[in-house]
Design a protein that fits this description.
single chain; 269 residues; alpha/beta; Aminopeptidase; 2 domains; 6-stranded mixed beta sheet; binds zinc ion
């Protein structure tokens, strides 16, 4: 079981950068909760712990202490940038980063930028800085700066669900790739876990219609169908279709007769 530590920056009395109609602490919490949810739902053998999952204040020291104590396999600290200019995405490793941190930064940065491509986000590059979160974490650690909250074009992107989803998916893919996580197999809907005598709500009206029209007898709606049963149902459908076509022929012939009679009446007038 791998432990991923996600650190949503700021919180509580510390709003982080204050943008145009958005607060950094809210955006990064939203992204962080999304990363935890998707990573755990879609990949096997991984557990995500968060420095905070609500709007509370934590010192930087408390964050790295908790991650180190948990023995996390990697740490990603999630922030938004500020300071004006042209905006964009960038990531940070420690100036004295390990090869593992550099590798984490590279895969994370690449996956995130790939998913941001449709939204025209500027790539500000993979950088190194002497930041507490990446310096004091004992595991491979990267800090991501997810767009500029005080640049109008970036701030408007941070208000869009598809952009936030892309940021979440980029973090998830990068982390999964770095740790070599295996994707969970999508389980086919099983007949073993249901009551075959109770019709599923999504199929209820179709089942009622089929029963009313005599294709099925109305029993055991959740049971699998054999090839023989399928042949019987198909044959019932075929007979009905043939009758329908024959019925239309009679109607058409009748209409034709009536038209001819009308024409004949007009001629003799
Ligand atoms: Zn920040």
């Amino acid at each position: 079981m791998k432990t991923v530590w996600i650190d949503p920056g700021h919180g509580g009395k510390d709003p982080g950068a204050v943008g145009i109609g958005v607060l950094e602490k809210d955006v990064v919490l939203n992204i962080s909760l999304g990363v935890k949810k998707r990573l755990e739902a879609e990949y096997e053998g991984v557990k995500v712990q968060l420095s905070r999952s609500t709007d509370v204040f934590l010192e930087l020291r408390e964050r790295t202490d908790a991650a180190n104590k948990a023995g996390a396999d990697l740490l990603v600290s999630i922030h938004c940038n500020a300071g004006g200019g042209a905006g964009g995405f960038e990531s940070f490793r420690y100036t004295g980063a390990s090869a593992a941190s550099r590798s984490l930064q590279n895969v994370l940065h690449t996956e995130i930028m790939a998913l941001l491509k449709p939204f025209n986000v500027r790539d500000r590059g993979q950088k190194a800085a002497n930041l507490h979160m990446v310096r004091e974490s004992k595991m491979p650690a990267v800090l991501t700066e997810n767009l500029f909250i005080d640049v109008a074009s970036d701030a408007s992107k941070l208000k869009r669900k598809d952009v936030i989803d892309a940021l979440i998916a980029g973090h998830v893919l990068g982390i999964a790739k770095y740790l070599g996580l295996k994707k969970k197999e999508e389980k086919p809907v099983s007949n073993l876990n249901r009551d075959i005598h109770v019709v599923s709500s999504w199929a209820a009206s179709a089942w009622e219609e089929m029963t009313k029209n005599g294709y099925v007898d109305g029993s055991r709606p959740g049971a699998p169908v054999t090839r023989e049963e399928n042949a019987v149902m198909m044959n019932r459908l075929r007979k009905n279709l043939l009758q329908l076509i024959a019925g239309n022929r009679e109607q058409l012939a009748e209409m034709e007769k009536r038209l001819q009679a009308i024409e004949a009446a007009e001629i003799t007038k």
